[in-house]
Amino acid sequence: MTINELNKIRDEKADLIKVRRVIAEEGVKLAEKTGYRKQVLVCGGTGCQSSGSKKVLEALEDELKIQGIENEILVVRTGCFGLCSLGPIMIVYPEGTFYAQATPEGVRRVVKEHLKEGNVCKDLLYKETVHEDGSIISLSETNFYKKQKRIALRNCGVIDPENIEEYIGTEGYQGLYKALTSMSQDDVIKEVLDSGIRGRGGAGFPTGRKWMFAKASQGDIKYVACNADEGDPGAFMDRSILEGDPHAIIEAMAIAAYAIGAHQGFVYVRAEYPVAVHRLSVALEQARERGLLGKDIFGTGFDFDIEIRLGAGAFVCGEETALMTSIEGHRGEPRPRPPFPAVKGLFGKPTVLNNVETLANIAQIIRKGAAWYSSMGTEGSKGTKVFALGGKITNVGLVEVPMGTTLREVVEEIGGGIPNGKKFKAAQTGGPSGGCIPAKYIDTPIDYDNLVALGSMMGSGGLIIMDEDTCMVDISKFYLEFTVDESCGKCTPCRVGTKRLLQILDKITSGKGEMEDIDKLEELANHMKSSSLCALGQSAPNPVLSTLKSFRNEYEAHIKDKKCPAGVCKSLLSFEIEKEKCIGCGLCARNCPVSAISKTDYTAPGKKLPAMAIDQSKCIKCGVCMSNCKFGAVIKK
Amino acid sequence: MSEKTLNAFKGTAEQEAALKEVIAKHHDQPGGLMPVLQEAQGIYGYLPLEVQQMVADGLGISLSEVYGVATFYSQFSLTPKGKHQISVCLGTACYVKGSAKILEAVENQLGIKSGECTPDGLFSIDSCRCVGACGLAPVMTIGEEVYGRLVPDQVKKILDSYKEGGAEA
After folding, report:
1. In this complex, is the C-beta atom of A231 within 8 Å of any C-beta atom belonging to chain B?
2. Residue B122 domain-assigned (yes or no)
3. Do both B97 and B32 map to the same domain?
4. Other CB atoms within 10 A of residue A308 CB
5. How many CB atoms are closer than 10 A to CB A216?
6. Are strands A223-228 and A351-355 parallel, antiparallel or unpaired?
7. ipTM score of the complex?
8. B33, part of any domain
């Protein structure tokens, strides 16, 4: 493919895609030019597919034919819009109206009433987009989207990821062309270095320096690898980018390969992400067909191709040396560094390994320049960061904000606060390697350095919100169970240390803890941090240390008072019946699996039957009585 | 117990031919063992010792190396799985929303623990770490089907719909 051919496709598609970015009058005029009166975008991300977006899409296409308007309306299946809790999501442009939790029946109405007759189905819209006076705002004006700055997610939910022409229509592959034709290898590296971008996979190592080291390494064969082994439970930005904008990753890998002098790339992606793997395969095939991968790209003599390798469900393979060992076909165990991958990586050759989200920024940095990118963010952390917002939060989904945005803005404004009137207690970042940030630090600007100072870390960007019903000791235990499972077993501090930490936490949550257990936890945790072989073991104690720092009183309540303040740890709970409230219906006793509930001889004033009581020696604390009682007479203590 | 008969290897000639093809395809590829095992599991449904031996012979590496890789990754299974594979997500988002209780309900309903298969071979239970459908938490999957926003009381009805004759839906 030549640059003229590339520009021709871009110019053909540009308006079509612009309609999806600009709203109102200008959009309507643009839409007329494109030949499609309206465009309907349906989310085809994993989240929305799980809630039935395929059936919505089928109903949409079917009804368009029934109404005879299939030639006027363009249907696009995109990647993730980010607001996964409202899926399946459907947007109509140029208006930008936002239909949430779409159903096949609802969609048929939208086709008839909105797309054909021009009357928006207000009752089916996301309720935040309909004001009390009946006026409608577009998707980009909602609280969820307003504060976001989408760079890495720029095309997610905007283009059809399985159509390379749509990517080209958003200036796609122009960055690669610029790098190959008007920049030297060192120019490319300098641009990335100057942009200040740091690796989005966890530790935040400057991307440009990685490339610089790899270029400086001697060797005829070098590799570029993409880490898409997104293992942090609760983080799904890499998956969404691969599903929504796979060509951005291909273009960035080609740029990286040019910069360091590699001709072969690998994408190591979780097998649990079938949609992402499929879309990436389609994208690779299309890029090869157009000559954007393969021999002599853009006639410059530069050769590059990419192979997909599937992971097989091992968290440790997200660690760079383990990932490379796994690509080589072995047990995914890490190896000591140095030598660093930039010197001796995959198959013993110099290798650059970048995370998906990092790569999603690269082509734009090359196109728009380092100054543009570094104008966003904080002193030490440039650009934006994608977070997977989850847990006890109203708007669950993917958000991208400039570095330095406060936790409060993310939780209260974008996330819509905590549901059910509960109080914000803590935010967990960095998954099993990170820690919990307590409510008192909610105004801290989020960047790499601040999170580390708070005893957590950026990690890949999982942001799990916890309310007052979450027990912090239980959460530590949860993460330790995870790391015990996932420790590869190669080094002793991690293999044995994680297990011992878990045993102590088990002891505490079952009410057998002693005060010196807290000291033991701290001592062991610090040893593991300093002596484990890889980042998994070094960071596995973080959940314990950070909760001990901010929520020591909860540990003490478990140990001294034998109580779980959040009411989570079963062994420390007791269920009781308030005899003044009990009407004696006996529903609890009939449902009790261990027959622990029986009648007393006390009848409360105004009640006809004697109250019930729980025999604590028989109670297994399953909570069935509490969920069955219609009078709120069963209480958890 | 029934486990022995359940585990008896019953490979067909077609499966063996398919495996040989896969081995030939990846034979000269550096790091080809993982893709071979992934496709082998696709053919047989699991990786019994007999299959691992064929892979080792085919690729010219030792059985211990194959076994080492097969046991390292959680995706590979050395025992057969149920006809309907249930996977309850215990990722953080689901866990915070009570997925441990969903897993407990599934285990109680089927009378087996996570990682096991029912004696009739109909169901097997596993837990997984994040299917990425955090917006629907808590989530479980049965085969390709995803069930979201679950409460423990729904579990029985969902499982019944997979049992022969017990289907209500």
Report:
1. yes
2. yes
3. no
4. 17
5. 12
6. parallel
7. 0.84
8. yes
> Can you tell me the distance from the alpha carbon of B79 to that of B81, in angstroms, rounded to the nearest whole number?
7
Beta carbons of B73 and A50 less than 8 Å apart = no
**Sign of dihedral through CA atoms A41, A44, A46, A51?**
positive
Q: Which residues of B touch A305 (CB under 8 A)?
A: none
DSSP A89: P
pLDDT digits (tens, 9 = 90+) for A384-428: 999 999 999 999 889 999 999 999 999 999 999 999 999 999 999
Structural domain boundaries, residue B56: 2-72
Instruction: Find all residues with CB under 8 Å of B89, minimum gap 6, and list them.
Output: B99, B127, B128, B129, B130, B131, B133, B137, B138, B139, B140, B141
Distance, CA of A123 to CA of B163 (rounded, Å): 38
Q: Give the class (CATH, top level) of A472-561.
A: mainly alpha
How remote is the C-alpha of A17 from its chain's centroid? 25
Burial zone of B54 (CB within 10 Å; 0-12 exposed, 13-18 middle, 19+ buried): buried
Least confident of A12-21, A64-73, A230-239, A459-468: A230-239
The whole-angstrom separation of Cα A126 and Cα B99 is 27
The predicted structure's pLDDT at residue A474: 94
Interface test with A, best of B129, B131, B150 (most A CBs within 10 A): B129
Q: What architecture does CATH give domain A574-636?
A: 2-Layer Sandwich (3.30)
Residues 6+ apart with CB under 8 A from B35: A309, A310, B26, B29
Q: Does domain A164-374 have CATH number 3.40.50.11540?
A: yes
CA atoms within 13 A on the CB side of A68: 1
Say yes or no: do domains A384-467 and A574-636 share a fold: no
Q: What is the CATH number of domain A384-467?
A: 3.10.20.600
A433 neighbors A205 (Cβ within 8 angstroms): no
Question: How much is the pTM?
Answer: 0.90
CA A329/CA B21 separation, integer angstroms: 19
Give the number of residues written for chain B.
169
- Chain A residue whose CA is closest to B59: A329
CATH topology of domain A7-145: Glutaredoxin (3.40.30)
Chain B: residues touching A (Cβ < 8 Å):
30-35, 37-38, 65, 68-69, 72-76, 90-93, 95-97, 128-137, 139, 146, 148
Interstrand relation of A38-43 and A73-78 (parallel, antiparallel or unpaired): parallel
For chain B, the domain total comes to: 2
Do B132 and A239 count as a contact with CB atoms less than 8 A apart? yes
B21 and B61 assigned to the same domain: yes
The angle at the Cα of A387, spanning A466 to A53, to the nearest 5 degrees, equals 95
Residue B79 lies in a domain: no
Same-domain status, B88 and B153? yes
For A181, the token pair is 């034709």
pLDDT class for A328, splitting at 50, 70, 90?
very high
Strands (E), A377-512: 384-391, 397-402, 424-429, 435-438, 462-467
Q: Where are the beta strands (DSSP E) in A270-392?
A: 294-297, 302-310, 351-355, 384-391
* Separation in Å, CA A328 to CA A257, B34, B37: 19, 9, 14
CB contact under 8 A, B133 and A271: no
What's the CATH code of the domain at B97?
A: 3.40.30.10
Residue A261 backbone zone (phi > 0: left; psi -120 to 50: alpha; other: beta): left
Nearest CB among A309, A310, A390 relative to B137 is that of A390
